[in-house]
Write a structure and sequence with these properties.
The complex is a heterodimer. By secondary structure, chain A is mainly alpha-helical. Chain A contains eleven helices and two strands, in the order ααααααββααααα. Chain A has one domain. By secondary structure, chain B is an all-alpha fold. The chains are: A mainly alpha, B mainly alpha. The interface between A and B is large, with 71 and 71 residues.
């Protein structure tokens, strides 16, 4: 199909529909959705990748903000877990953005891709990926009150959870934020394994909190795109409107979806994200 | 579980959720209205809609050079145009997070949770630094 022959108004409508669908999936996988939005819109829409990246970031921001109230009220996201980790991530994202141009991003993309694919395989092999969480908090986790409880309608259980390895969690979120800053795109897909496998948050709490952490980090990163003029409203606003509706539906589905299904979805999204980072690093698909 | 502590946690989280809900609903409604005004031509754009298909495939630097669209905070002066009014709606989204964080600072402080209040306050400063454009060069 010749994109130039298509009336301009078709593209915003198509963007709205695509964003709505990705918004549902993104919340269920605990990602911002940029990892799905950028390759899909970059491949099938006529916009330059500079603008697609900018729209991808505000897309992720709008989706995670919109899902937030449902996740917080259902206690599938924990403000006390989110705040310190998001602070570490957003400060590191600044540092990453400042040094980003001095590093060989192709090498980092390959390293990131290999890491994410390895994490996906680790979750696939780990039987505890959707377990009840740590039995005891460590000292820092206890001081920060990183614990909570929530009702899981899919499992029919009230789950009391707490986290551990808090210092390692801070280091992970600083590293994730730093990489996100270096690449100019969020690396939020690494949040769920850091929260679940490392800090032992239950999978649904890890997914809900991951989205909220992305919303905080992207709130800082969005200004880079705004100040650089890399946001086209004709592209970004339909994407924002679509994902805001889709993510609210996704947040409600998260409570009712069995953890095993959510786990499989996380693995698929991590594999897609990891392979995409690898392909960018190897120059196969930029 | 310490029920008082859990109730405290839930209270701060509820406040954040309530503000976030109100802000995102408001942002959706205003963005939809602004986009309809822009797309229907009710509000004239700075860059004509008919010329967008020839421009949206260009790299951002080339797009800015051809259209004369501003960088930094220059867009605020053009917010009377449909496209830049929509950009203002986009810029409101990152402010939502800062607003919700600001709201929970006193909520935590009132409950004697200085550490959480301090974390929230520092995060607001980080977001304000990002909005200032000081770090945009990275």
């Amino acid at each position: 199909m010749d994109a130039a022959a298509v009336p301009w108004w078709i593209w915003p409508i198509a963007l709205f529909a695509v964003s709505f669908a990705i918004g549902i999936v993104a919340v269920l996988a605990g990602v911002g959705g940029g990892v799905l939005f950028v390759p899909v819109v970059g491949s099938f829409f006529p916009f330059h990748l500079d603008f697609v990246r900018g729209a991808g970031l505000v897309f992720a921001l709008a989706g995670t903000l919109s899902a937030g109230p449902v996740l917080l009220r259902a206690r599938m996201a924990s403000l006390r877990l989110i705040m310190p980790l998001a602070l570490a991530g957003s400060v590191a994202a600044f540092a990453g953005a400042l040094v980003g141009l001095r590093l060989r991003t192709d090498v980092l993309q390959i390293a990131l891709g290999v890491t994410v694919v390895a994490i996906a395989l680790l979750i696939w092999r780990s039987r505890d990926a959707y377990g009840p969480g740590a039995m005891q908090s460590d000292a820092l986790g206890a001081a920060l009150h990183m614990r909570g409880e929530y009702q899981d309608p899919a499992a029919g259980l009230r789950i009391d959870w707490r986290t551990h390895r808090t210092l390692a969690g801070f280091a992970s979120f600083a590293a994730i934020g730093f990489l996100g800053g270096v690449f100019g795109l969020g690396a939020g897909f690494a949040n769920v394994p850091a929260l679940n496998l490392l800090m032992a948050a239950p999978l649904k709490v890890a997914i809900g909190s991951s989205g909220m952490i992305i919303s905080v980090i992207n709130s800082a990163a969005a200004w880079v795109y705004i100040h650089h003029g890399a946001l086209l409203p004709i592209l970004a606003v339909p994407a924002i409107l679509g994902v805001m509706l889709g993510s609210r539906i996704g947040a409600r589905l998260l409570a009712a979806t069995p953890a095993a299904v959510v786990r499989r979805l996380v693995i698929v999204v991590l594999l897609l994200a990891g392979l995409r980072a690898l392909s960018r690093g190897l120059g196969l698909w930029t | 579980m310490d029920l008082n502590r859990d109730a405290n946690e839930h209270a701060a989280q509820q406040i954040y959720a309530r503000w976030l809900d109100a802000c995102t609903r408001g942002a959706f409604a205003v963005s939809l209205a602004a986009f309809l005004a822009y797309a229907t031509g009710a509000l004239a754009p700075y860059v004509p809609l008919a010329s967008m298909p020839a421009l949206w495939g260009l790299p951002v630097d080339e797009y800015l050079r051809r259209t004369g669209a501003p960088e930094g905070w220059g867009w605020i002066a053009l917010a009377g145009y449909g496209d830049f009014l929509n950009l203002a709606c986009i810029a409101a989204l990152p402010l939502v997070t800062a607003l919700c964080y600001l709201r929970v600072v006193p909520a935590f402080a009132r409950r004697g949770e200085g550490l959480q209040a301090a974390i929230a306050a520092v995060q607001v400063l980080v977001l304000a630094a990002a909005a200032s454009g000081f770090f945009a060069g990275g």
